[in-house]
Write a structure and sequence with these properties.
Blueprint lengths: L27 H4 L1 H7 L16 E13 L2 E13 H21 L7 E6 L12
Antiparallel strand pairs: 1-2, 1-3
Bound molecules: zinc ion (ZN).
Protein name: TonB C-terminal domain-containing protein
Organism: Streptosporangium vulgare
């Protein structure tokens, strides 16, 4: 009887009888994490991958002065602010602050929020010979 403990059919084929007496209004195998887990990978929609927002990291990119060997030089810096929505909020705040002090230091007002996707971790096979 391939029904989840919430009473939702997850196939294959057409539902067998008898149908469960109890059936939760949880959204079934497409919406409910319990039903989805019990149904396994077969009926899980591929579109429901990890939330993309948590896998983007943000930074504030800006031009600043640096002093090496007594020579003032302008360099592009990246201040990493975090991942997901908190990282984006912090990057926006930092850009606003930076755009205030850049003209005071005779710098171009060029602070912007930049982002990039965070790649998955990969297992390194350290094979001994
Ligand atoms: Zn359920």
């Amino acid at each position: 009887m391939p029904y989840t403990s919430h009473g939702h059919w997850y196939g294959p084929g057409t539902p067998t009888l008898p149908t469960p007496q109890y059936r939760a209004r949880c959204g079934g195998t497409r919406m409910c994490p319990v039903c989805s887990r019990e149904a396994g990978p077969i009926s899980r929609p591929k579109a429901e991958a990890p939330a993309p927002a948590a896998r983007i990291e943000y930074a504030c990119r800006f031009t600043a002065w640096t002093n090496t060997d007594g020579i003032e030089k302008q360099v592009v810096k990246y201040d990493f602010t975090g991942t997901g929505d908190p990282g984006l909020s912090e990057a926006r705040r930092m850009v606003a602050d930076t755009r205030v002090w850049q003209p005071r230091q005779n710098l171009p007002v060029d602070a912007v929020v930049v982002s990039r996707p965070v790649p998955e971790w990969t297992i390194v096979n350290d094979e001994e010979n």
